[in-house]
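1st attempt posting a full record on here, be nice pls
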Amino acid sequence: MIYLLDTQLVLWAASRSTRLSERARRLLDDPNSGFMFSSAVIWEVSIKNSLGRPDFTADPRLLRRGLLENGATELEITGEHGIAVSDLPALHRDPIDRIQVAQARVEGLVLLTADSQVAAYGSPVELV
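the predicted structure (as tokens):
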């Protein structure tokens, strides 16, 4: 199975945070699982890092390089993904989260998240 990780999970996985759930750890450690991250993750980290947010201290360049070097695949945002956002119910206002949900739907991926608001979209989003 190939999973798309949301921003929070990408950051927690990259920093080996204890905040990762046991289920998320098992999925990340499973050699049969593949992982992708949206280019929106790098965009979000860049924006929030430049605003001085203490919870976004990761260097976006190092984060991206580390993800790619560790076998994750970057999913770029396409026009089709942007259009798919218009099909989403207004459950969540964060545009980064919404584009990641749309990407998962369009690409047939499961989006893993630790955010219950994002998980409210239902399939293909899974709360871990």
